[in-house]
From TrEMBL, chains A, B:
Gene3D superfamilies: Winged helix-like DNA-binding domain superfamily/Winged helix DNA-binding domain. One of its GO terms (molecular function) is DNA binding. It comes from the Bacteria. This is DNA-binding HxlR family transcriptional regulator. It comes from Planococcus koreensis.
Amino acid sequence: MDTTIICPRFETAISLLSQRWTGLIIYQLLNGPQRFRHLTEVIGISGRLLSERLKSLEAAGVVTRKVYPETPVRIEYELTEKGFSLKPVMDAIQDWSQEWVEPVNAK
Amino acid sequence: MDTTIICPRFETAISLLSQRWTGLIIYQLLNGPQRFRHLTEVIGISGRLLSERLKSLEAAGVVTRKVYPETPVRIEYELTEKGFSLKPVMDAIQDWSQEWVEPVNAK
DNA sequence: CCCTTTAGTTACTTTATGTAACCAATTATA
DNA sequence: TATAATTGGTTACATAAAGTAACTAAAGGG
């Protein structure tokens, strides 16, 4: 009998990455710290969900939130070391998409 | 003004991978062709969702369905070349999880 | 004061997921 | 000859997550 068990760490990792938007947020933050509003515009996510995702990414130790008390207030989100170390994952997805995903395609 | 645009191929790729269960299904199928029932047991997914995911993975050209008219009928799902070429992605997630995810953790 | 900007939150609708019972095909068992 | 068992699903319904859009708080600027 095949009693293969999926690695629990892998499962934890993929449950993070397979949440809608989290991959795109991390991918986008690989370009450097960015503001809330900018993220909504570039990614095409609503404030409601971006807020939720950033909180859970912060809780997961992937993202940090930095407040600059300018006017109007500037808040930047950036990847932690843990977050940056997802770059090889994003690169692998990027590579695969270049080879296997046709460019056209609307939906 | 920063008019960065996220690569559409990357977006397509990640919209596939960020569907719940698809990552685990692909990861599991990297071990070779497997039957429907076996997948439900190993992954812990319901028949309803597994069926739906396998159909969309087939439509995306990542998985093929093979029917062996034995008794009871044996149907095996296996990765296509496109599917197997996601191995570097899965490996990268695996590597990251080994380094950054603590093993304990229930939910 | 009123307006603008940023960074969210709230309330509500729509879509996706979870759960469990059910079905058809086929062969073994009482 | 029923009856049960196994596989590969599907259906119907409940719950959770995501989408939409309006709203709020804080802090200047005019």
